[in-house]
Amino acid sequence: MGRRRSAPGLSTVKVVDLASKSIEASTRTKGNHRANELAYDPVDKIILVAHDADVPFPFVTFISAETRTVLGKIVYNGFNGNPLSTGGPDMSVPATAVNPNGEVGDNED
Question: Which residues contact 37 (CB under 8 A, 6 or more apart)?
Fold first, then answer.
């Protein structure tokens, strides 16, 4: 990523070159509301984006930092609260119907 930053927009993730202050790429995540929290896995070069306010259900998107394409997503159906990035490959989930006190979901499952 170097001198570039990923910046959330209306359900898109934009890659901005900090030197030229220009948008290099925009990846649509197909949500209805803005993309929110971001986490980056430098080993696998994957960006995780939380869509905590999306309807009908919140979800997280996995984007390749190399190809800037969507690799997949996890929909939090029956979810209560915001999916929060932990800064790594895990997501903190405040509550679900099955785990009302919260849980950590590992994306390796």
Answer: 49, 50, 52, 82, 83, 84, 85
Asked if 65 and 59 touch (Cβ cutoff 8 Å), the reply is: no
Whole-angstrom distance, CA of residue 55 vs CA of residue 59: 9
Is the CA virtual torsion 30, 37, 62, 94 positive or negative? Answer: negative
pTM of the shown model: 0.67
List, for residues 13-41, the tens digit of each pLDDT value. 888 889 999 998 889 888 888 777 788 88
Question: Which amino acid is residue 12, in one-letter code?
Answer: T
Q: How far apart are CA 33 and CA 99, in angstroms?
A: 26
- What one-letter code names the amino acid at 41? D
Sorted by sequence, the CB contacts under 8 Å of residue 94 that are 6+ apart come out as 80, 81, 82, 84, 102
Q: Are 21 and 4 in contact (CB under 8 A)?
A: no
Amino acid letter for position 4: R
* In the chain, where the domains are located: 4-106
